[in-house]
Specification:
heterodimer; A: mainly beta; Methylamine Dehydrogenase, Chain H; B: Alpha-Beta Plaits; 12 strands; flat; protein biosynthesis (chain B); RNA-binding (chain B); Eukaryotic translation initiation factor 3 subunit G (chain B); initiation factor (chain B); RNA binding (chain B)
Amino acid sequence: MRPILLSGHERALTQIKYNRDGDLIFSVSKDQQICVWFAHNGERLGTYHGHVGAIWTVDVDPTSTIIASGSADNTIRLWDIKSGKCLKTWEFPTAVKRVEFNEDGTKLLGVTEKRMGHLGTIVVLDIKVDVDAEQTDEKELTIVCDESKATVAGWSYLSKYIIAGHEDGSVSQYDGKTGDLIYNIPIHELNMAITDLQWSPDRTYFITASKDKTSKLITASELEVLKTYIADTPLNSATITTKKDFVVLGGGQAAMDVTRTSARQGKFEARFYHKIFEDEIGRVRGHFGPLNTVAADPTGKGYASGGEDGYVRVHQFDKGYFDFMYEVERERQNRLA
Amino acid sequence: MAAQTKHDWADDEDLDDTTATVDLPPPQKITNKDGSSTIIEYRYNDNGQKVKTTRRIRFITHREVVSPRVAERKTWAKFGASAKDGNGPAADTTSVGENIIFKPSVNWRKDAKDEVNDPNAQAMKDKLKDKKVKCRICNGEHFTARCPYKDTMAPIGEGVDTADVAAGMGDEPVAQGPGAAGAGKKGSYVPPALRGDRAGAGAAGDRMGGKYGERDDLATLRVTNVSEMAEESELRDMFERFGRVTRVFLAKDRDTGLAKGFAFISFADREDAVKACNKMDGWGFKHLILRVEFAKKAA
């Protein structure tokens, strides 16, 4: 496969998101701009300007009408995808590290940083998925994380729960309506921050990535660990592919943690694991720095990775990827045929 | 998508020594029968020489059915920093990376390791995997120098043992040659470097022979009827079109420096060598017709 290199950012990438149809890629970086790209050829559709700080996170609503972004300038902004106009700005006391729409796009959660005497919070905003509508200023819900701040969070199936990953390596489940804490389970190693949380297509389970060099597949309803993927480097991101039962992990030794890092030693590769058998089945090289974010195309045709080096690499899988099967999988297919 | 079909080295650069007085002919575009088109352009290079560039380009239309929503989004006007970009990916933001071979595999870790090491070295290791250290005095599993009977017993079956080491080297005839010679013709003079009958030197000798042993004769072509004026680099350019060339050897006269008329080309891959052999046999090169065949194994 020949990856498409997107060099629209001048600083490290922080998050990449595909829209639901898999034709648009949204990328945010510390250089204060959001880019949107066509996934099939890497053409840039446009950029969204307005943030005055590093942008940590972006999410697109299920109908691909609006996007939300969270930034170190203490705001969440809502944008019209088509025109690039900023529709709404919400101010917060601290930086926003993660935003995510729920399944139908009517609610948006934001994770705010713990800083300057403010505790980390998870806020929920009501969203009208309409470019012309007036968005409300009111926060529907605020969950305060008084023990360990949340680093990532997301909506489960039917917006029933809010799942949050914490800096201390634990995962919490909150009620999606009341915000009450239901569970808080230490899943990853103590004080190894959870760096990413991405959902399966039906949002019944999710994958976490952690600095403890592992990634775990966890159910949304019981927070039961289904699978563990062990890597040899701190992980920054993990995603679940569709069509094939794989997961993609991204990470690498951060440059600040070592004196010298070559591309190989730094382990700046996207790692593919089999989702069920937990085996590592391959790696994709290319980045010059740690992978900060990986995103799988919802159609299963490819994936994109964004690195500390400021590049987004969009990969379209080729035949060998789709043909790969374990012996047991092949036997099963033959039996069914 | 544009694919450049079968680039021909001969068309690549035709250097004419004409001075820059003649105006350049206009670029030509010819549509070929097979659907591809040939574009011929002329320009002057840095030395003032006229350069003719011929490119054959084939356009392949790739159709994909997308949902109406996606199709509609493709017609959207660009905005923000991309507002001024034309249709298609802009060169400053989008580029295509080098090809990555990604084939999921259960034991990819092993595969990757093989790739990292020299393939020849790996092959050698595999061959020697079953070989154990064997004492020539007592046939125990230790080096002869460490044998407890070193001072009391004479080595047994010396000739047999060296043959064994040579066999361990595998099928490389060049490596086997001196080793076998050393073992076989007993009594005849064997240069010290080729003697395989000393404990330490056995291994060292192997390694020295290994330099030739690693050479893969299976993917080596013998090219004869090569012009005297030929250069190794020219041969390399010619043969590299078929695959990775690991070695080019052009026999040259020691005094005059002119080519003797034959050369050996080693490929990394035997399949490439077969392709090259078929294509290049009978190829006209510097007023002579090349004869290409697979190199015979050294006797």
